[in-house]
């Protein structure tokens, strides 16, 4: 996009987690002259490898989209979850400090326990219920403590044209079945990854040197997983009945927050642009497929 070509003309951004949903959305915007994209071949748990890479490639900023995101699997693979989500973030914070470069790190609504009934602000108390949430919170703490300059962006319910996600799964299952039972008592906000990618790139040049701050980003509006699934099926005119069920009817290894809507006022003020409603972004996504 021309807007970002001008802004990042003399920079070299390292994007970790380049093969994930958000990483691929960033790749669709930035050119090879603006950013270097690395997946698992750059091990963020290896501080020496990170130091060598940043130095050799004259990296001027980092967007960390790398994460262990298998929420239920993390309950068994505890060590791996902490290595990526906590130790990896710790290492990137050290790199930010060593090379005096800004870091944008992606975190999650799962750092909250879901007992709120109004949107969570960045200053609300955290209390993760799952290993995934706990490991991500440890990563946040390391960045706040150690990074030179950083924005930590908590997001939720991510989907995109890339990889596997809820929208693709519901679309496929609805085409295969007559009825789908979907949890209706977990409330949050879907996030279209291309919207988040644009917000990140607007934020990066606005990060003041030495500042470390938590931010929240998801699409506007509130939904249950049932609401989300219903809209996915309805917009595509798929003949499938979506039936609401309680979480107790769909037990999972990891406990999810019942309510994790994020307050986005802080990030909206910084980027000075409105955030699209989740229904509008979902429609844009489906029309592009």
Give an overview in words.
By secondary structure, the protein is an alpha/beta fold. The protein has a single domain (2-163, 193-219, 260-275), classed as NAD(P)-binding Rossmann-like Domain (Rossmann fold). It contains ten helices and twelve strands. It has helices at residues 2-7, 21-27, 47-56, 78-99, 131-146, 166-176, 193-203, 225-235, 265-271, 278-288, and strands at residues 13-16, 35-38, 61-64, 102-108, 149-155, 158-159, 179-183, 187-188, 191-192, 212-216, 223-224, 241-245. The strands form four sheets. A six-stranded parallel beta sheet has the order 2-1-3-4-5-10, with helices on both faces. Strands 6-9 form a two-stranded parallel ribbon. Strands 7-12 form a two-stranded parallel ribbon. The chain starts with a helix and ends with a helix. The model has no long low-confidence stretch (mean pLDDT 94).
Summarize the structure.
By secondary structure, this protein is α/β, with parallel strands linked by helices. 39% of the residues lie in helices and 17% in strands.
The largest sheet is:
6 strands, parallel
CATH class: Alpha Beta
Spatially, the strands of the biggest sheet line up as 2-1-3-4-5-10
Counting structural domains, the number is: 1
Q: Stretches where pLDDT falls below 50 for ≥5 residues?
A: none
Average of pLDDT: 94
CATH-assigned homologous superfamily:
NAD(P)-binding Rossmann-like Domain
Distance between the ends:
20 Å
Treating each run of at least 4 consecutive H or I residues as one helix, how many helices?
10
Total E-strand runs = 12
The radius of gyration computed from the alpha-carbon positions, rounded to a whole number of angstroms, is 19 Å
Global structural class? alpha/beta
CATH architectural type: 3-Layer(aba) Sandwich
CATH topology: Rossmann fold
How large a portion of the residues is in β-strands, by DSSP E?
15-25%
**Helix share, percent:** 25-40%
What coarse outline follows from CA principal-axis ratios? globular
């Amino acid at each position: 996009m021309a807007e970002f070509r001008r802004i990042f003309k003399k920079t070299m951004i390292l994007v970790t987690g380049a093969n994930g949903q958000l990483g691929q959305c960033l790749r669709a915007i930035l050119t090879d002259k603006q950013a270097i994209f690395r997946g698992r071949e750059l091990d963020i748990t290896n501080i020496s490898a990170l130091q060598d890479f940043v130095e050799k490639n004259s990296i001027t900023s980092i967007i960390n989209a790398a994460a262990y995101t298998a929420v239920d699997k993390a309950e068994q693979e505890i060590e791996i979850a902490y290595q990526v989500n906590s130790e990896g973030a710790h290492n990137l914070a050290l790199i930010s400090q060593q090379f005096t470069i800004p870091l944008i790190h992606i975190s999650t609504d799962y750092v909250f326990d879901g007992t709120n009934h109004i949107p969570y602000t960045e200053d609300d108390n955290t209390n993760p219920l799952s290993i995934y949430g706990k490991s991500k919170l440890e990563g946040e703490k390391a960045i706040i403590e150690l990074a030179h300059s950083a924005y930590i962006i908590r997001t939720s319910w991510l989907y995109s044209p890339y990889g596997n996600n809820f929208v693709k799964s519901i679309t496929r299952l609805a085409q295969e079945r007559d009825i789908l039972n979907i949890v209706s008592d977990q409330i949050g906000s879907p996030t279209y990854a291309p919207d988040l990618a644009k917000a990140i790139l607007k934020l990066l040049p606005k990060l003041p040197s030495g500042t470390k701050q938590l931010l929240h980003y998801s699409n506007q509006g509130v939904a249950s997983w049932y609401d989300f699934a219903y809209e996915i099926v309805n917009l595509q005119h798929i003949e499938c009945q979506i039936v609401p069920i309680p979480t107790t009817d769909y037990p999972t290894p990891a406990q999810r927050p019942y309510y994790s809507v994020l307050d986005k006022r802080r990030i909206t003020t910084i980027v000075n642009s409105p955030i699209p409603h989740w229904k509008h972004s979902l429609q844009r996504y489906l029309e592009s497929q």
